[in-house]
Amino acid sequence: MNEVRIDKWMWATRIFKTRTIAAEACKKGRIMINGVTIKPSRMIKVGEVIQVRKPPITFSFKVLDLTERRMGAKLVPGYLENVTTPDQYEILEMNRISGFVDRARGLGRPTKKDRRELEQFTDPGISDDGFDFEFDFEGPDDEE
């Protein structure tokens, strides 16, 4: 076996949970080889680098071996090598830190008070009246 469909390979190596999801990612233009979007039927070879865009970052995998059969997670490192650049992981970490403040499980939706506190925490520069600057109502003509 010297060529395999990319959707089968990504499903077999556990990049995607189902082959259908892998094929949809190809159709949506989220899978690239050498900067070119590809179809799910594209045959891949050993040594190619596949870029998988899962927002907010793009993962890169080098094909080490080919397979059409799904395998256990412990066997995956023999079939692909993660060559994603460290700056992509920094983007992911920054997104985690800045985006969402963890809530304890089971508390449900935040109340209006919780939302206001969260907004004040994330944007501390804005005062309660909504303005972050002072108005000078006296113009040059207003002398008393």
TrEMBL record:
Family annotation (Gene3D superfamilies): RNA-binding S4 domain
Biased amino acid composition, Acidic residues: 129-144
Domain of life where this protein originates: Bacteria
Residue segments, region Disordered: 108-144
SUPFAM superfamilies: Alpha-L RNA-binding motif
Pfam family, one: S4
Keywords: DNA-binding, RNA-binding
UniProt cross-references to InterPro entries, sorted A to Z: HSP15 (IPR025708), S4_RNA-bd (IPR002942), S4_RNA-bd_sf (IPR036986)
Residues of the RNA-binding S4 domain: 4-61
Family, as annotated: Belongs to the HSP15 family.
Protein name: RNA-binding S4 domain-containing protein
